[in-house]
Specification:
Blueprint: E1 14-23, H1 27-38, E2 43-46, H2 71-80, H3 103-117, E3 120-122, E4 126-133, E5 136-144, E6 147-158, H4 164-168, E7 173-175, E8 190-193, E9 211-212, E10 215-216, H5 217-224, E11 234-236, E12 243-245, H6 258-282, E13 290-294, E14 304-306, H7 314-318, E15 326-331, E16 360-363, E17 375-377, H8 386-392, H9 395-415, H10 424-433
Parallel strand pairs: 1-2, 1-6, 2-3, 6-17
Antiparallel strand pairs: 4-5, 5-6, 7-14, 8-12, 8-13, 9-10, 11-12, 15-16
């Protein structure tokens, strides 16, 4: 686009000065803010929506995925158990009852935890650009109903998912998979009520199936749903007579482009009617099913991969590597690559075929951009390959990445250190005091 307008020079008011500024209040940003504040830092958490939790709440993700153990994630699970009086689901190899999310309850719990830690929270505030001096980030420009303001900080944590603050600060990154820059598809999660759960079989993975009177439900979906929809994923909910569906699918969407996101939102929304009609006709127990809610934020799985001081690879995960400078321990999931060109599992992915059974670690260097100072990465935007990202992008691992980033940010702010100069052993000491240790990676379940 060649057209532009010349904005007048302006003086931007400074709304706050803090030790640590966290951008984005999904699981990674929430964890970073709470953990930084618990280490004695003054912390502000910025979130563009009206709720905490990101994909875990606004995104209607049904459950905390995988078998990661320990860290701040374990505290979230423990404190969430009382929200709905304990959900009851049939034994399942994928999902434990304590992993199922009460979306509204979790929003309130997270607010309470932020308040208890002393975090200053600003919702409805969009981070538009860094405040920088050369290659050092000193804060962020924020747009809201109050206009443009600046928040200054000693250390910033980018937990925006897409790495918006880091990208605008000039941090180097790649997009999508290395061969062609294509990214995983996006999804609107659906909460569906009116379901007779006594007749339902949960379908929690692409390689799982449900044999219904018409045959394989997965095969029926591939034949009858409008592409790129075409798979069945039916998850439990904390509410009676209700399930959560991960079945809308839009490929070729760039989560950093608002026009592309709009097309993805529209494409997924147009699939809702056919998906419900398909389940009412083909899936026992869904005869009277109706839509309760669609996620208020589209689920973006993959965009920018930043170049950090270290990069975690799929081989590191497949070998359950324990790094000397680990700051996340006992992370566990599979190579969950949603089909980049259609529905179901991508040919490069591995769910049941993921044979490694030990937790892996993530090194501190993955959280530190190669060039930009005053900034840490937290969540799915850390430094990793496309395949490694398909594993660590899930919420439990992102929460524990956020924990490490928050501790590191607080230590750096307290001692006047750049993140790249911080000894990872200092972070490990705090984590070990909280019971986090990689051991040999063995998991309890």
């Amino acid at each position: 686009m060649s057209d532009f307008v010349q904005e007048p020079e302006r003086r931007t008011p400074v709304a706050a000065r803090v030790d640590v500024l966290v951008a984005g209040a999904g699981p990674a940003g929430f964890a970073a803010a709470v953990c930084a504040a618990r280490e004695g830092a003054s912390v502000m958490l910025l979130e563009q929506s009206g709720a905490i939790g990101g994909v875990a709440t606004n995104g209607l993700m049904s459950h905390w995925t995988g078998k990661t153990e320990g860290g701040f994630y374990e505290e979230i699970l423990r404190r969430s158990e009382a929200l709905s009086g304990g959900v009851r689901i049939a034994p399942n190899e994928h999902i434990a009852p304590r992993q199922v999310i009460d979306h509204e309850g979790l929003k309130s719990l997270m607010l309470d935890m932020l308040e208890d830690a002393g975090v200053r929270l600003r919702l409805y505030s969009f981070v538009s650009a860094p405040v920088a001096a050369g290659d050092r980030v000193r804060g962020a420009l924020v747009e809201s109903k109050a206009g443009r303001e600046a928040i200054l900080a000693t250390v910033c944590v980018d937990a925006t998912g897409d790495g918006d603050l880091a990208a605008r600060a000039g941090a180097a990154y790649s997009v999508g998979r290395e061969s062609d820059c294509r990214m995983q598809p996006v999804t609107l999660m659906l909460k569906v009520g009116g379901v007779d759960l006594s007749r339902v079989t949960y379908v929690c993975g692409f390689e799982d199936d449900w044999l219904v009177p018409g045959g394989s439900l997965q095969e029926l979906a591939r034949k009858r749903l409008p592409p790129p929809a075409g798979h069945v994923l039916i998850y439990p909910s904390t509410q009676p007579g209700t399930v959560v569906l991960n079945m809308t699918n839009a490929s070729g969407v760039d989560g950093t482009d608002p026009e592309s996101l709009t097309r993805g939102e529209a494409a997924c929304r147009r699939q809702i009617g056919p998906i419900l009609a398909f389940l009412r006709e083909c899936a026992p127990g869904f005869e009277s099913a109706y839509l309760v809610a669609a996620s208020s934020a589209i689920g973006v799985r993959e965009t920018r991969h930043f170049k950090g001081m270290k990069t975690i690879t799929e081989r590191d995960i497949a070998e359950a590597r324990v790094f000397d400078d680990w700051v996340v321990a006992r992370a566990y999931f599979n190579f969950d690559v949603h089909n980049i060109a259609g529905s179901g599992l991508d040919p490069t992915g591995a769910q049941k075929g993921f044979s490694q059974r030990r937790g892996y670690t993530i090194p501190y260097g993955c959280l530190v951009p190669e060039r930009v100072d005053g900034l840490l990465l937290a969540g799915r935007n850390i430094s990793g390959t496309h395949m490694a990202h398909s594993n660590y992008r899930v919420m439990p691992i992102c929460a524990n990445i956020g924990q490490a980033a928050g501790i590191a940010a607080a230590l750096c702010a307290k001692e006047g250190l750049e993140p790249r100069a911080l000894d990872p052993g200092r972070i490990q000491a705090v984590l070990r005091a909280a019971g986090v240790d990689p051991g040999d990676g063995s998991l309890s379940r």
